[in-house]
């Protein structure tokens, strides 16, 4: 049942409803609440011409109201004018929307036929006790509603990078919601309707809907036509282009064409191999059957051997020789059983070795160097350490570069230059302090996207108190507060920018309660312009709320938001003192938030995730400090391994091993408790079987160990790194954390390998020419062995000593320590030189890369490797000589002052071993013979070809980027903040398009910049950016552009009479916003020519600068939102005189960037857009966003990777070819090194390792260490040659034998020095909690070690044995070699088959 008041209200207009010439409301009858706007009086009277300011009415509603009655009065017109001015600040740039807006509200307020479409449905009493309207029905046709909405839907507001519809229509998506927002009653003091206006769709029978013809923004009429920015229908559509990274490419099904071709080729190769193998087996069986039938037993005995060595020996490689020498084997049927030269008329001439003069020079040089350093060890140590000590003085100038910008961006790169330009002219980007507030849940596994709604009265009350505490927070020691360090867009006396939901409530909840807060929040979310915070810039919901659910119809449920987003914006400055001021307060905020994070779940059931301006650098440094322990532990593990295993690569002649001694002691110990046997002869008792109380440990454990020597070698590695740092610090090259963590690993990998090779070679020299050499058969043995055994022993020893400068039989058997050390260096020095030069050149070429982190790393790495090599061939040689003297003096390792007495010297029996350690025996007896079988070679080649194909396919899937979370400790609070950013932040970073070095006062430049005037260029800066926003998938631009020049010119529009104002008495004086309108007038009111949308009459030259300065100091208000101080105060840069604009920027935003690829693609897209703008307008334009400088590396990193690896491989090819004396072998080594790096890159694609500066450094390391794996093997292969040409019938057998010798010679050292050492270090590194260390060091290095070992010790030997270049024997004179060859029956020493291994080993 209706109340009396409602019955009364419904009576008004009931008799006049639908009557033309009658009003439903007229005049104002007072406000309904304190502070509210006047409300209209319901009436049923006819329209009247009384009490109407006709001039004001015509100025507001047009010429249609020049005469005749109306339904409005002057006081209503004043209220209408105030409301229209508020809206037209945002919509005046589009005449169609502006005119439709005025027509709509003028008709509603003043139409003489108001009663035909407007009906008062309820009334109320005003404060003056008059009856006023409470709600009305306004009937509007769908035709007009759609046209009205369409004309306003796309109007942009530059100051907010948003749309006018967000502000005047609550973000409406159709005309119904647009009308509803405008009609809903608004709170007092808030722009909008003071009473409820409803918009029913169907009018009553007696009434008609308002149905004027709406203006269209695309009409040619100047009173309607809008510009492209506000009316997409008239925009020149930009053609669609693919997004960065999604360019079309060739595919066959789901795989790329390259992958398809590789798979097809590999499949064909595999099928061919299998078919060839089957054919070979078939042919071989048929041949064996034929020989068994056709050949008689007497035929074999007719052949007369051409060599004294006619016995049969199972030579591995003979079968391959039989298949490789083709037709020539017909004439020399026994060549596969004999040595080299049997197929030629002159064996001696055939055996003449090829000489490589560089080899001879290098060996003689290293021999002399070794002799000097071994003869004068203390002088060498003093001289070298003095020089290196001077280099270490450079540590006084040591600087560690931590700034990521200076680390990863070249100082002359485009991005860093643009950043510095932006910082200089517009100021550095702000320092954000951001907090995410969510509901606390007991389960840690709950997904962020499943968080419950956070908004409630209790949570708002709690957070309001927290914000008060943060505003009052004081730093130590200077007591700075937020007000001292925050960014204030309206000047020093303005308010801080705090983007928080509390800004919608005026930072005070006292005026709200548990029932009213939600309606207010919804109203602010739908129309942020009605809830301006104190810094006077609208806060749209994405800035303060996260995780807002969206219904199927597109409407957003703001009250169900999952997170509050709170951002405090601190000022930034190029002044370090100002920076430190902000950082001091940020550290205080960090401590406060750490405490809040612990108590908020208990106090309010809330969780926070947060970040401050100092957080990232502090947490990264904390991660580096935590990683130091793991890195040091990894180093210690490698040190321990090297010191214990050095020198154990060969077997001592004297004594037993530790375990054998302990076993013997355990067996003999029970004899203490048994009665002694009286019948045994004392002379027959082996003293080793005598029971003892304590174990009789072997002498080798005390004297023969090389712990001190190993530690000294490691100390040289540390010294080389330290000296390199000192040297480059003198040159001003800064160090980095990557250098500190990686260089020692690299130098250890390179240096330890050389240490093992030198020590193992000295062990061999000791076996041949040491104190006990006389007991070793083979040279000068008084009792000859049987011919086969003697020859076998002699040949093996020749293999091990074929580097001697003179004939072995012409020199004394025993050599001094100095001579032995010199011979060891003479043999291995060229190999060390080869690997060192190759690595140094490869690393040094990396210095041409402009990225400072990579360039500095390359310099430090090259210097460290070079200095380490110098130390190894000088002071380490001296240390080897001193250590050998200690051993021969029976002094204890680690305690050289203690000397153990020598045991009784007895004649040693024929040794059971050949001086080889376990690894060497395994390689000699099992690995090398197996690897060099023809079938195994084919399988190896096919396997590595498969790895290559898989690697190339995988490389195509390597992604670029480096997730910052990886650089943080696993327990860092920033990880949670990054996760919340991904889950809840629905806005992208701002991007600025900077225009510089042009005359902004000229009309041509203005037309090249603007977008809201009819004479603006079709492809102006503003229009092009709007066009790019419409193809956001390829441009990554989401928001309308903030165009300062358009807002500035519209600020001058006299229609906005509260914006630009001058004194009536003196037009050169501007009015402040507080001065009375009676003293002021619009700037362009009497301007000639007048302000118009064609830009004719708009200011140029000095007049432009005159008005521009005033606009930039004008504070925005509800009367004039176009004032420039808040939104554009830093958008322009003037010269020192202030008379010329030197640069300006146009601000917009990227789409939300969630991944590394998004950031990289946004960088590429922005630069493409800037280049197109420059091309179309002729202006100098560049883009800037905060993240560009960090992602600049990815614009060039692929080219840099190709460049540095390509140059490194070229250096490897040149150096190895020259020092090895064979382009064929150099090419093979280079190819294997390249395959190693390709394999590492292939694993990157599979193991989730992105390509960035860190992984690029590791790829450079891969190149260097791959050389280390290959260089020694290749050098040993080339140094054991016989001089046979490649195409000789016996060439295949000879290459197999050389490869076997090389593997036995240096294989154990490579395995011990690099592979096992690094594997131990990497095993410790696997314990790290740092994802950065795990992914970019552990994963990459373990891949590198395994790949390098497999390629260097499996693939390289196979390829060299098949296609390696002819070698060079190490004899220094042809005559000496010939005499040696004659004694050995002109035959190159073959390696023995398994049936002879019992004799040789």
Automatic annotation (TrEMBL):
GO molecular function terms listed in the Swiss-Prot or TrEMBL record: sterol binding
Secretion signal, residue range per the UniProt entry: none
Protein name (record): SSD domain-containing protein
Species of the source: Hermanssonia centrifuga
PANTHER family: NPC INTRACELLULAR CHOLESTEROL TRANSPORTER 1 (PTHR45727:SF2)
GO process annotations (BP): sterol transport
Similarity-based family: Belongs to the patched family.
TM annotation in the entry: 258-279, 366-395, 628-646, 707-731, 737-759, 832-851, 857-882, 935-955, 1204-1222, 1228-1249, 1256-1278, 1309-1328, 1340-1360
Keywords: Disulfide bond, Glycoprotein, Lipid transport, Membrane, Signal, Transmembrane, Transmembrane helix, Transport
Domain of life assignment: Eukaryota
């Amino acid at each position: 049942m209706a109340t009396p008041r409602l019955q009364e209200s419904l009576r008004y207009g009931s008799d006049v409803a639908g009557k033309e010439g009658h009003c439903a409301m007229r005049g104002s009858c007072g406000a309904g609440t304190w502070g509210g706007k006047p409300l209209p009086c319901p009436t049923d009277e006819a329209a009247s011409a009384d009490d109407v300011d006709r001039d004001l009415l015509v100025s507001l509603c047009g010429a249609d109201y020049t005469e005749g009655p109306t339904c409005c009065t002057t006081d209503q017109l004043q209220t209408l004018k105030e409301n229209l001015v508020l809206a037209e600040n945002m919509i005046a740039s589009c005449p169609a929307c502006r005119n439709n807006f005025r027509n709509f509200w003028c008709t509603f307020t003043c139409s003489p036929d108001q009663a035909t479409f407007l009906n008062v449905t309820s009334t109320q009493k005003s404060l003056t006790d008059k009856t006023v309207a409470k709600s009305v029905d306004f009937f509007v046709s769908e035709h007009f509603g759609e046209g009205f909405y369409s004309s306003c839907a796309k109007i942009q507001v530059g100051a907010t990078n948003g749309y006018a519809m967000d502000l005047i229509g609550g973000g409406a998506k159709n005309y119904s919601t647009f009308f509803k927002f405008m009609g809903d009653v608004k709170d007092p003091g808030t722009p909008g309707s003071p009473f409820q206006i409803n918009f029913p769709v169907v009018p009553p029978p007696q009434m008609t809907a308002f149905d004027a013809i709406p203006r269209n923004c695309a009409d040619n009429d100047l009173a309607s036509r809008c510009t492209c920015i506000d009316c997409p229908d008239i925009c020149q559509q930009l053609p669609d282009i693919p997004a960065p990274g999604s360019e079309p490419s060739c595919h066959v099904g789901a795989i790329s064409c390259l992958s398809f071709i590789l798979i097809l080729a590999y499949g064909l190769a595999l099928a061919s191999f299998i078919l060839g193998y089957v054919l070979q087996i078939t042919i071989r069986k048929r041949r064996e059957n034929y020989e068994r039938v056709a050949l008689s037993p007497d035929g074999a005995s007719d052949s007369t051997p051409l060599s004294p060595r006619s016995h049969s020996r199972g030579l591995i490689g003979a079968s391959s020789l039989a298949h490789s020498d083709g037709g020539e084997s017909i004439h020399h049927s026994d060549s596969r059983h004999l040595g080299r030269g049997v197929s030629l008329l002159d064996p001696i001439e055939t055996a003449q070795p090829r000489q490589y003069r560089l080899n001879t020079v290098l060996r003689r040089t290293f021999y002399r160097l070794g002799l000097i350093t071994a003869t004068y060890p203390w002088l060498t140590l003093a001289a070298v350490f003095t020089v290196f000590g001077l280099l270490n003085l450079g540590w006084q100038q040591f600087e560690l570069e931590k700034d990521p910008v200076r680390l990863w961006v070249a100082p002359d790169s485009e991005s860093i230059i643009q950043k510095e330009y932006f910082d200089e002219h517009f100021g550095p980007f702000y320092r954000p302090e951001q907090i995410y507030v969510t509901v606390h849940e007991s389960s840690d596994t709950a997904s962020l996207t499943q968080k419950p709604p956070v908004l409630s009265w209790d949570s708002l009350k709690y957070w309001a108190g927290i914000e008060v505490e943060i505003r009052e927070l004081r730093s130590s020691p200077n007591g700075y507060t937020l007000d001292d360090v925050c960014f204030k867009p309206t000047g020093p006396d303005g308010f801080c920018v705090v983007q928080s939901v509390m800004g919608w409530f005026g930072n005070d909840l006292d005026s709200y309660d548990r029932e009213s807060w939600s309606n207010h929040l919804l109203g602010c979310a739908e129309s942020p312009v009605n809830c301006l915070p104190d810094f006077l810039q609208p806060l749209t919901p994405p800035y303060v709320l996260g995780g807002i659910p969206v219904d199927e119809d597109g409407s957003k449920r703001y009250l169900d938001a999952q997170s509050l987003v709170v951002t405090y914006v601190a000022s930034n400055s190029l002044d370090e003192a100002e920076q430190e001021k902000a950082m001091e307060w940020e550290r205080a905020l960090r401590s406060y938030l750490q405490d809040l994070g612990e108590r908020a779940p208990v106090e309010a059931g809330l969780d926070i995730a947060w970040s401050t301006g100092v957080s990232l650098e502090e947490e990264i440094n904390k991660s580096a400090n935590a990683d130091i322990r793991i890195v040091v532990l990894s180093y210690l593990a490698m040190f321990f391994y090297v010191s214990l295993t050095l020198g154990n690569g060969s077997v001592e002649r004297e004594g037993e091993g530790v375990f054998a001694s302990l076993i013997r002691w355990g067996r003999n110990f029970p004899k203490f408790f048994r009665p002694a046997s009286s019948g045994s002869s004392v002379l027959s008792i082996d003293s080793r079987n005598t029971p003892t109380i304590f174990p009789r440990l072997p002498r080798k454990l005390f004297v023969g160990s090389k712990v001190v020597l190993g530690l000294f070698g490691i100390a040289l590695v540390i010294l080389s790194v330290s000296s390199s740092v000192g040297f480059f610090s003198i040159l001003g090259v800064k160090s980095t954390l990557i250098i500190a963590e990686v260089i020692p690993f690299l130098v250890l990998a390179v240096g330890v390998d050389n240490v093992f090779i030198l020590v193992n070679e000295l062990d061999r020299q000791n076996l041949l020419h040491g104190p006990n050499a006389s007991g070793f058969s083979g040279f000068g043995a008084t009792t000859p062995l049987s011919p086969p055994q003697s020859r076998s022993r002699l040949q093996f020893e020749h293999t091990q000593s074929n580097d001697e400068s003179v004939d072995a039989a012409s020199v004394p058997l025993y050599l001094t320590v100095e001579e032995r050390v010199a011979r060891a260096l003479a043999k291995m020095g060229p190999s060390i030189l080869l690997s060192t030069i190759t690595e140094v050149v490869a690393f040094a070429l990396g210095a041409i890369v402009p990225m400072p982190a990579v360039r500095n790393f390359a310099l430090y790495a090259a210097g460290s490797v070079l200095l380490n090599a110098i130390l190894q061939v000088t002071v380490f040689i001296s240390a080897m000589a001193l250590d050998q003297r200690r051993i021969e003096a029976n002094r204890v390792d680690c305690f050289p002052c203690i000397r153990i007495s020598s045991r009784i010297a007895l004649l040693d029996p024929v040794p059971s071993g050949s001086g080889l350690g376990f690894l060497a025996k395994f390689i000699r007896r099992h690995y090398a013979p197996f690897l060099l079988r023809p079938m195994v070679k084919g399988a190896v080649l096919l396997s590595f070809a498969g790895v290559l194909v898989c690697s190339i396919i995988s490389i195509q899937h390597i992604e670029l980027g480096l997730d910052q979370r990886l650089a943080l400790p696993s327990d860092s609070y920033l990880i949670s903040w990054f996760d919340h950013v991904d889950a809840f932040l629905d806005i992208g970073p701002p991007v600025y398009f900077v225009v510089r070095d042009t005359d902004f006062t000229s009309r041509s430049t203005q037309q090249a910049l603007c977008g809201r005037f009819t004479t603006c260029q079709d492809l102006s800066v503003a229009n092009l950016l709007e066009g790019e926003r419409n193809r956001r998938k390829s441009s990554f631009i989401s928001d309308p552009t903030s165009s300062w020049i358009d807002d500035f010119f519209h600020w001058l529009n006299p229609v906005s009479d509260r914006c630009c104002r001058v004194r009536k008495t003196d037009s050169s004086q501007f009015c402040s916003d507080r001065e009375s309108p009676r003293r002021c007038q619009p700037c362009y009111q009497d301007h000639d020519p007048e302000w118009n949308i064609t830009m004719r009459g708009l200011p140029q030259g000095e007049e432009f600068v005159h008005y521009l300065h005033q606009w930039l100091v004008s504070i925005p208000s509800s009367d004039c939102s176009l004032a420039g101080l808040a939104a554009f105060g830093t958008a322009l840069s003037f010269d020192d005189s202030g008379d010329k604009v030197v640069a300006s920027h146009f601000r917009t935003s990227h789409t939300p960037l969630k991944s590394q690829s998004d950031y990289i693609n946004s960088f590429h897209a922005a630069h493409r857009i800037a280049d197109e703008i420059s091309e179309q307008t002729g202006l100098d334009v560049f883009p800037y966003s905060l993240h560009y400088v960090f992602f600049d590396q990815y614009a060039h990193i692929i080219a840099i990777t190709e460049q540095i690896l390509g140059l490194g491989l070229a250096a490897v090819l040149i150096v190895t070819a020259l020092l090895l004396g064979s382009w064929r072998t150099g090419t093979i080594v280079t190819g294997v090194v390249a395959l190693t790096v390709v394999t590492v890159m292939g694993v990157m694609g599979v193991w989730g390792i992105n390509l960035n500066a860190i992984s690029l450094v590791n790829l450079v390391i891969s190149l260097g260490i791959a050389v280390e794996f290959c260089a020694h093997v290749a050098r040993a292969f080339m140094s054991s040659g016989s001089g046979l040409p490649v195409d000789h019938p016996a060439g295949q057998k000879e290459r197999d034998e050389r490869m076997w010798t090389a593997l036995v010679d240096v294989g154990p050292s490579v395995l011990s020095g690099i592979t096992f050492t690094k594997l131990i270090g990497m095993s410790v590194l696997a314990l790290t909690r740092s994802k950065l260390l795990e992914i970019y060091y552990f994963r990459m290095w373990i891949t590198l070690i395994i790949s390098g070992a497999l390629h260097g010790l499996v693939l390289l030997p196979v390829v060299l044995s098949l296609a390696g270049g002819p070698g060079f024997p190490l004899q220094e004179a042809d005559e000496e070699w010939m005499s040696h060859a004659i004694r050995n029956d002109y035959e190159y020493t073959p390696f023995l088959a398994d049936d002879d291994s019992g004799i040789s080993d």
